[in-house]
Design goal:
about 240 residues, alpha/beta, 6-stranded parallel sheet, 12 helices, about 55% helix, transferase, WecG_TagA_CpsF
Length: about 240
């Protein structure tokens, strides 16, 4: 993943690193921006969840447990490599407190790292003064790597709407990864992710916020998938 992020690209080209997990699969059925973004040819979709690995294997795809990866596994490594290679990073999202704490930690750990950011609580309406200020700040920073962590589907809507105005080689949909780095979210043990149990840790850590995602969305997603299978079934001659 790091080689993909930091390999040289022709000027004016970019990739978007999107994430696919059960929550994201649910969002594709209720938010067209997320679905559009993942379907674009310049979006690299990361398997961020063991249930997706199991579903793909059931459909005959040759994917293994090792293909499952998440931002928590390599965000810190990406900052280290950016510092080593002199590449800039911009973090867009989270609360002002999370952002400032995380930026301070990154600058203290890697003094040579060129890193800046802006919180995620701004008006994303096209033409708004806040949006224009955010886009101008990203452009002025000239980052190689933009980490957008505003939660699904807000972060996907932002990138889908304004990706052509982001002169950044790599745009990553990072979710809560920077909040983990900043110490505002408890990091699940990595073995839980490999066995498809990371959701239990997140649910236990924040049941009020995560109950809908982990307890209600799976049956709703099952309903969406069943309807899609029914509508796409072969018709009798």
């Amino acid at each position: 993943m790091l080689d993909e992020i930091f390999r040289p690209r022709p000027p004016g080209t970019r990739i978007v690193l999107g994430g696919a997990n059960l929550h994201g699969l649910y969002v594709t059925h209720v938010d067209p921006a997320y679905d559009r973004l993942l379907a674009r040819p310049d979006t690299l979709v990361i398997l961020d969840g063991m249930p997706l690995v199991w579903m793909l294997r059931a459909r005959g795809h040759k994917v293994e447990r090792a293909h499952r990866t998440t931002w928590v596994d390599w965000l810190t490594d990406s900052f280290e490599r950016a510092a080593r290679e002199g590449k800039g990073v911009f973090v867009l999202g989270h609360t002002p407190e999370v952002l400032e704490t995380g930026l301070a930690l990154a600058r203290a750990r890697w003094p040579s790292l060129r890193i800046d950011g802006h919180h995620g609580f701004f008006d994303m309406t096209g033409g708004s003064a806040e949006l224009e200020a955010v886009l101008a700040r990203i452009a002025a920073a000239e980052p190689h790597f933009l980490v957008v962590g505003m939660g699904m589907p807000r972060q996907e809507r932002f990138v889908d709407a304004y990706r052509e105005r982001l002169a950044v080689p790599v745009v990553g949909l990072g979710g809560a990864a920077f909040a983990y780095f900043a110490g505002f979210e408890p990091t699940p043990p990595r073995w839980m992710g490999r066995w498809g149990l990371e959701w239990l840790h997140r649910l236990a850590a924040d049941p009020r916020r995560m109950a809908h995602r982990y307890l209600l969305e799976p049956p709703l997603l099952a309903g969406h998938l069943a309807r899609r299978a029914w509508t796409q079934r072969p018709q009798s001659p």
